[in-house]
Amino acid sequence: MANNKLKRRLNKNSFHQLTSDPALFIGVILILASLVLFIVYPLYAAAKLSLSDDGVFSLSQYQYIFTHSYYSKSIMNSVMLGAIVATLATFVGFVFAFAIAKGGIKGQKFFQPMAILPIISPPFMFALSVILLFGRNGLITAKLLHMDTSGVYGLKGLVIVQVITMYPIAYMTLVGILQAIDPDLETCAMNLGAKRIKTFFTVTLPLALPGIFASWLLVFVGSLTDFGNPIIIGGEFDVLSVRAYLEFTGMGNLPRGAALAMLLLVPTVGVFFIQKYIIKNKAYVTITGKSSRRGSSSVTGVAKIGLFIFTLGVSLFVIMFYVTIISGSFIKLWSVDWSFTLRHFVYAWDVGFTTLKNTLILATISTPITAVLGMIIAFIVVRKSFAGKQILDFLSMLSYAIPGTAVGIGYILAFNKAPFKLSGTAFILIAVYVFRNVPIGVQGGIAALKQISGDIEESSTNLGASTAYTFRKITLPLVRPAFFAGATFAFVRSMTAISAIIFLVSARWNHLTVLILAQTEIMRLGAASVLSFALIVVVMAFIFIIMKLTGLKQSQIFGTTK
Fold first, then answer.
1. What is the pLDDT averaged over residues 295-315?
2. Could you check whether the bond before residue 419 is cis, i.e. omega within 30 degrees of 0?
3. For 349-383, how does the pLDDT look when each residue is reduced to its tens digit (9 = 90+)?
4. Please, which residues bridge with residue 340 across strands?
5. pLDDT higher for 86 or 145?
6. Calpha distance 252→255 (Å, rounded)
7. Among 176, 339, 370, 506, which one is most buried in terms of CB atoms within 10 A?
8. Can you give the pTM of this predicted structure?
9. What distances in angstroms separate CA 299 from CA 199, 314, 346, 391, one per listed residue?
């Protein structure tokens, strides 16, 4: 009875805090309404369609999928590909992170950018590079090795491309974890007689295992939901994300396409909660205060050389793909006529200038909205207490776990009729950019706010400042690095999006990645290379400008250090 009274009193106080501040109350209502409209409602529309047969509730679509080998094979292929890629990419990411955080290798100013470079690339740039290097007319296979093969299409090619594309995900998760392990623990183990290799397997690796598992799960989901690479280089190796797209757009079977998209949602949401639980607990980080000394080197000289060679090899492999794309922009006909030409630029300018301009406009509009909204939500979640805060926190992060294919299908179904008829407009693309990327800003904002004493903001409130004024004048300046990091990520992801927006583009509002995909499908690889090159230049230029204007370092923007 006493506990019930206490809960009622707390709820009453929380509600009073919410209603006593008009700015907070209105902000929470508007944010919740937006999250429901642009995240929950599209999912509901897709789920409803997948569970209906002529307007009547039915599981027939799911029964059909699981009783026909054609679809079951796509599911199994996706799981198999995800497991292989997650294992290899996590291994590469861990070795890269260990080399930088613990290995003490030389050239870290070069290797740190190489560890995250694939993140800022177009979603299928590496697939295009693999075709140019290892395809039927590939430079390496056809010209250097004189091989007539199409083996690059399918599982092998997808593994290569996805591992290179996704190892930065594992790296960014693991480098912070490895840096957070107190070096004194390793030093103590070696002082007690353990050799460095034994110290690694008995101290370092066990402390990093939860992070390794979390990274594996993230990469697994990334592979499972990848759309751009499989549609380019998948060949006859069908995967679930592409099958859902083809069913929905090519076959015109909307209920089955929606059902396949919903199937993608199950593992991604599950992994999202598992990964969040692992990272939240952080039982693997053993910090009892700042280490009093750096500790002994955790690797031998031979191991350091091995780590250097490995990271250099991966970096050169990544650079080779970039060089291939740049070279393909200037070669008249790849593998047939190697003469220099600028005609691909002329053609790309004719077909792509308007699309590039529109893509840049939409990304520029959505980026500040995403960054500000993410920081506001983070501020409310960390600093305020009211009934329903957990719902706001959950909904703001939910879109992070939703596959792009499911988002695209959901938006088409939800916003293709009154009262929310947005299809074909710029607004629907901006909405996708904002609500797909806002979790990045929320996560960064929460992490930054937890490092700042709430007494500063409380003092402002006690002096009569409103929540809105305190947020604008006190909080936002203090979390400036996290704000611009979120904005940078939002811009990069908006410029390189594909899986969701491919359903939503129109003749008036196209997207550059969709145009690159179209040029690749009709084998205009030179034009596709030019457009990919242009996209890379725009993204890198934006990052460079942000770093110059704000004084932030790469590690602060991409969160690769503690």
1. 81
2. yes
3. 999 999 999 999 999 999 999 999 998 898 888 88
4. 331
5. 86
6. 9
7. 370
8. 0.84
9. 10, 20, 52, 46
Same fold, 10-55+340-562 and 72-328: yes
d(CA 371, CA 489): 9
The whole-number pLDDT of residue 435 equals 94
The C-alpha atoms of residue 507 and residue 424 are separated, in whole angstroms, by: 8
pLDDT tens sequence across 406-440 = 999 999 999 988 788 898 899 999 999 999 999 88
Q: Tokens at residue 159, please?
A: 């593994």
466 — alpha (psi -120 to 50), left (phi > 0) or beta? beta
DSSP β-ladder status, 52-53 and 331-333: unpaired
Q: How many CB atoms lie within 10 A of CB 51?
A: 18
Domain extents in the chain: 10-55+340-562, 72-328
Distances (CA, A) of 511 to 14, 122, 459, 541, 561: 44, 12, 47, 19, 33
For residues 320 and 554, what is the distance between their CA atoms, to the nearest angstrom? 22
**Tell me: domain 72-328, CATH 1.10.3720.10, correct?**
yes
**CB-count burial class (<10 Å; 0-12, 13-18, 19+) for 541:** exposed
Q: What is the pLDDT of residues 253-290, one digit of tens each?
A: 889 999 999 998 888 888 777 766 766 655 444 444 44
CATH topology of domain 10-55+340-562: MetI-like fold (1.10.3720)
